[in-house]
Amino acid sequence: MSSLECRSGICTQVSALLLYGATFLATPDRSVLQASCLQYGNHDYLFGRRLGHGRLGEVRHAIRRSDGESVAVKCVKRNRHSGQEEERVLEEAAVLSGLSQPSIVRLVSLESLPSCHFLVVELLDGGDILDAVAGLHSYTEHDARQIAIALLQALKHVHDEVGCVHRDLRPEKLLMARDPSGGPQPGIGKRVKVAGWGRSKRLPPSGEVPGEHCFGNRAFSAPEMILEEPHGKPADMFAVGALLYTLLSGSPPRVATLSSAVNPKAPDTATGPAWAGVSAEAKGLVGALMTPRGPAARFSAEKALGHEWIRAGKGELKSRSLDAVLKGARVLGWTRWQNEERSRLDGGARGSGIPRASSMF
Questions:
Q1: Are residue 115 and residue 259 in the same domain, yes or no?
Q2: CA 85 from chain center: how many Å?
Q3: Domain named Protein kinase: which ranges (predicted)?
């Protein structure tokens, strides 16, 4: 890993980390692509480097032969042990096929062969939201608000127009697009896209799906999900609150336990130096999304979009610098990268609770 001039006073290794999200998807050698293509038996794509993996499949960078478009392909093996994973990828494709919104990853196709299912989506090669924040020279409440607006607009479409829930929102599920022309990058809120729809569900008439074993990162999981109770749109809204908490303070909320999920408390936005410069309006929205008064009391996506902080003037929010978030994003990113390197050397995944930058789904 190359060294960079450190602009923030932290070590050059951490600065070099900022290139990680932008380079790990680089186009691999043509011979590697061809070999992977033959391995999978799908000749519509040239398969490249692995971006992530699970028990029964993996995600790879690929190039479509017909037009040269770079995409991400989730490859799920088909065998007698893969029934649940096959069902999940088919449901994921069904949900994505009904979504059409600028801040949601775009489905390209679903293709099936006797040996594998291939879920093909647009390639988002700008890292995740923590990578993006860590790479900024400065970061303000205006930037946090732009990210929140993009996320809320995506969920309004998903919840109100399509009738689905994501159920697994966390930092590494917010991926960043880059301008393929190499021109100036648009604002951070214009580049963020919601990915990771493998746990999404269509809502039944009751508005809730059955509870199941809690998955993902508990710091971003609603109490009803931790308690394995039925849940719906409010569970996504709690996760939005936890994401906004992280984007305003530089650290995620405290991980909930079973006992704290039974008796939840309001988010601790009133204490700690990281919250000292955050506006009361921003804290108010976090509180409305993570309220301990239960799912029904949480703001919907539509109501959150009408909140005073979301509608505040750009100039006022641009003057509110959030230096603690820059530092926190870099520390989280460095810790995560170290964990991924240990996992790679050990030949397996470690359960650190730190989100993986390479998680495309």
A1: no
A2: 20
A3: 45-310
Three-state DSSP state, 60? strand
Which tens digits make up the pLDDT trace of 54-78? Answer: 766 788 999 998 999 999 999 888 8
- Nearest CA among 230, 254, 256, 238 for reference residue 299: 238
Q: What is the CATH number of the domain that holds 202?
A: 1.10.510.10
Q: Which candidate in 125, 131, 143, 168 is catalytic? A: 168
In this structure, the answer to whether residues 28 and 58 fall within a common structural domain is: yes
Give me the chain's average pLDDT, please: 79
332 CB-side CA count, 13 A: 27
- E strands present in the chain: 45-53, 57-64, 70-77, 107-112, 116-122, 164-165, 174-176, 192-194, 201-202
Global confidence as pTM: 0.81
Domain end residue (candidates: 308, 324, 340)? 324
Are residues 201 and 86 located together in one domain of the fold?
Answer: no
Last residue of a domain, one of 102, 123, 144: 123
**Is-contact 147 188, C-beta < 8 A?**
yes
pLDDT for res 285: 97
Percent of the chain having pLDDT more than 90? 43
- Return all residues near 256 (Cβ < 8 A) that are at least 6 apart: 218, 219, 221, 223, 226, 264
Would you call 168 a catalytic residue per the annotation? Answer: yes
Q: Are 331 and 323 in contact, with CB atoms under 8 Å apart?
A: no
CA atoms within 13 A on the CB side of 178: 18
